[in-house]
Specification:
Length: about 240
């Protein structure tokens, strides 16, 4: 099967192809294998001039015997630790976190990013290091790095130095949605500048110019409304205060 382990017959055909002066791509086509499989096989076993099927088969067997399969990691559910003393049902906490992450995905957030934001939001301290996020969610450090970079860009989290461990930790607080909301306002303003420039370029009497002028008016008007609403909320309810239901 394409992509499976090479057999002795495969190696004999590779050696025959090399002796005929065929390239890796042609040999791979005849074997119905990826070209990279053939090139790796040849390079690791003496190169085009030194490749011998018998020797390559012997070395492959030795490598297979040395290669011990690692035991599969024991499955551990993500640790969801509620604040002590509140008597929360861990299953209910987990179900809520899954639900919140799924809603964030539905509104356009990448899945891993949604999981990390939810993990931070449902942690008692609202702050975790990259290592803690990796352990809790059982994901790779690279996945965490990519996700927190996105969240920082959206201003949904902030980074601070943990004085005890000297590690960076990522924090959600009561002000994150306000900051993220204003970030959206700033981006709308940037887009409004571009559409205004386009309207001037094409001329507002033309279909394109008129369309861009309408977009500019819409963005500027709604941005003003958004800023007023955000500031009104911020003055009424300082971070940490609970708004009325």
């Amino acid at each position: 099967m394409p992509g499976g382990r090479l057999t002795y017959e495969d190696r004999r055909r590779i050696a025959a192809g090399l002796s005929e002066g065929l390239g890796y791509a042609e040999i791979a086509r005849r074997l119905d294998r990826p070209t990279s499989t053939v090139s790796r096989e040849v390079q690791r076993n003496g190169g085009p001039k030194g490749y011998r099927a018998d020797r390559a088969q012997q070395l492959a067997g030795q490598r297979a015997r040395r290669r011990k399969p690692a035991p599969p990691p024991a499955h551990k559910p993500a640790r969801r630790t509620p604040e002590p003393g509140h008597g929360r049902d861990l299953r209910a906490v987990g179900a809520f976190a899954d639900r919140m992450a799924e809603v964030l995905v539905q509104i356009g957030m990448p899945r891993m990013t949604a999981r990390i934001l939810t993990c931070l939001a449902t942690t008692g301290t609202g702050a975790l290091t990259a290592r803690e996020l990796t352990e809790r969610l059982r994901v790779s450090p690279a996945s965490v790095s990519t996700a927190v970079a996105y969240l920082e860009e959206q201003r949904l989290i902030r980074r601070e130095r943990d004085p005890r461990s000297r590690r960076d930790r990522y924090v959600v607080d009561d002000d994150i949605w306000y900051r993220s909301y204003l970030t959206s306002v700033q981006r709308n303003a940037m887009l409004a500048e571009v559409t205004a420039e386009g309207a001037k370029l094409f001329g507002t009497a033309t279909p394109v110019g008129g369309r861009l002028e309408n977009v500019t008016k819409f963005l500027r008007h709604t941005n003003e409304d958004m800023i007023r609403a955000a500031e009104h909320w911020r003055h009424l309810f300082a971070p940490g205060d609970s708004p009325p239901a």
